[in-house]
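TICKET: design request
STATUS: open
ATTACHED STRUCTURE:
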């Protein structure tokens, strides 16, 4: 296994640098762009058997991107948070104490001119895998994986193709097998007189999960099955099938989506998860709005709980329920969103889990 991983890394790095000094030549850096955004949130959490909780939170992010030449970009972002891989929120707490910031992005992106549609990224970056309607069944939208990613896309007048693959490092272990995520995804984007359709499939193989501590927080399995020592009982080999449909004509503001994931590793019983829903409208110009609804069902060992949506069920696997969103564009680069979660935590022994977000978003 080690030799295969080493060979893969060498091949990717050689392909990146194989173009010589042309792609990475030293020259004056131009095309620097800056960006920032701020979200203020009031949050209410009501869990069966517990006291209702209210809190104020913020998310602050500052980023820049630099175009080194016609093929290479660098990106960097710092964000608020507590170090969680699936949240950049910071709660107002601890007597007006100063809040922390973390490296959220630090990456290169290479788009070789000789091969249009190809991009290779390395470092810590935005998740390269497609999610229908930007839903968060497999991964939270704040997750920024680390390692290498390869993307290819080709557009045609009616039919487009995309392919994404990853070589992500989850845990480097000094005396045990390293935890990796090897994933691939392929899809087509088809346009017809009646609407647009995106369909595809992916396979995501978590290397060295079984018999190892839970990812990120060894004391929290995030809903997955673990033994008395807090180690995963099963492997996680996720097979995903997804679709997104956007009609035209009278229904051109509507998008329908579905995402299905099954853990096909050996001997896993509670291995299914799915999500389905719709969006209507688009909050873009002042006074415009959109609404979104989805229903989600996640069995406890269908996905890695540590990396899924941090708000649904309070984060993690093993549960089901509804999510409603209403997003209103107040002014240019300013919007307000209400999000309501009506969930049940636990498939077999369920408890009510309800959560409301009131967000004000500002973007530079």
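STATUS: resolved
RESOLUTION: sequence designed for all positions
ATTACHED SEQUENCE:
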């Amino acid at each position: 296994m080690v030799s295969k991983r080493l060979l893969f890394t060498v091949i990717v790095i050689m392909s990146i640098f194989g173009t010589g000094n042309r792609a990475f030549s030293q020259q004056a850096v131009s095309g620097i762009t800056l960006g920032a955004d701020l979200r203020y949130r009031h949050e209410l959490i009501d869990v069966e058997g517990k006291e209702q909780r209210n809190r104020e939170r913020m998310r602050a992010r500052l980023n820049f991107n630099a175009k080194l030449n016609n093929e290479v970009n660098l990106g960097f972002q710092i964000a608020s948070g507590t170090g969680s891989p699936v949240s950049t929120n910071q709660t107002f707490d601890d007597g007006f104490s100063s809040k922390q910031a973390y490296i959220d992005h630090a990456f290169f992106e290479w788009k070789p001119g000789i091969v249009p549609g190809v991009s290779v990224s390395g470092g810590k970056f935005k998740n390269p895998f497609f999610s229908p309607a930007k839903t968060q069944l497999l991964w939270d939208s704040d997750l920024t994986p680390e390692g290498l990613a390869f993307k290819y896309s080709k557009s045609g007048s009616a039919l487009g193709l995309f392919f994404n693959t990853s070589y992500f490092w989850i845990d480097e272990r000094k005396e045990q097998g390293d935890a990796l995520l090897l994933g691939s995804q392929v899809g087509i984007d088809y346009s017809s007189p009646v609407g647009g359709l995106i369909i595809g499939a992916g396979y995501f193989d978590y290397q060295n999960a079984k018999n190892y501590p839970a990812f990120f927080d060894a004391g929290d399995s995030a809903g997955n099955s673990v033994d008395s020592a807090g180690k995963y009982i099963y492997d996680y080999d996720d097979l995903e099938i997804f679709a997104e449909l956007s009609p035209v004509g009278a229904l051109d503001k509507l998008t329908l989506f579905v995402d299905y994931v099954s853990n096909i590793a050996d001997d896993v019983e509670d291995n299914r998860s799915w999500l389905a829903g719709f969006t209507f409208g688009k909050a873009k110009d002042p006074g415009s709005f959109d609404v979104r609804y989805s229903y989600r069902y996640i069995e406890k060992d269908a996905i890695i709980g540590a990396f899924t949506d941090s708000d649904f069920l309070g984060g993690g696997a093993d549960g089901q329920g509804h999510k409603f969103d209403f997003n209103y564009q107040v002014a240019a680069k300013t919007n307000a969103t209400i999000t309501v979660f009506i969930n049940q935590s636990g498939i077999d022994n369920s408890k009510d889990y309800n959560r409301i977000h009131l967000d004000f978003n500002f973007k530079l």
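CLOSING REMARK: The radius of gyration is 21 Å. The chain has two helices and 17 strands.
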